[in-house]
Amino acid sequence: MAEPCEHFNGIGAVEPQTRGCQECLALREPWTELRVCLTCGHVGCCEDSKHAHALQHYNATGHPLIASLERGQNWAWCYVDRRYFDPMPIARPRRRSWLAALLKRRSTTRPG
Length: 112
What we know:
This protein is α+β, with helices and mostly antiparallel strands. It has one domain (about 10-110): Zinc/RING finger domain, C3HC4 (zinc finger) (Herpes Virus-1, 2-Layer Sandwich). It is built from 3 helices and 5 strands; from the N terminus they run H-E-E-H-E-E-E-H. Strands 2-1-3-4-5 form a 5-stranded antiparallel beta sheet. The N and C termini lie far apart (about 50 Å).
């Protein structure tokens, strides 16, 4: 296994913010595969998708690392160093279940 790049330092466990590409969901567009930002949990579509929102997120924020959210894939990519890690050297984020997303939405909309 390759040594992780310096950008893995300080990366903690992130939770994907959505079950699909955040921008494609808003646009009602389809995507090919999903990537999660290992800095903030943003979920974007891959570069084979029409809009490549994961790459757009990197260009807008500079967050260096993404990981696949696809079943059976355990890799990460560093945009800055242009390095591929398979398997990735930290725990892989998991896609949220529909039930977890629903429960989180309900808990944040309840009057306090």
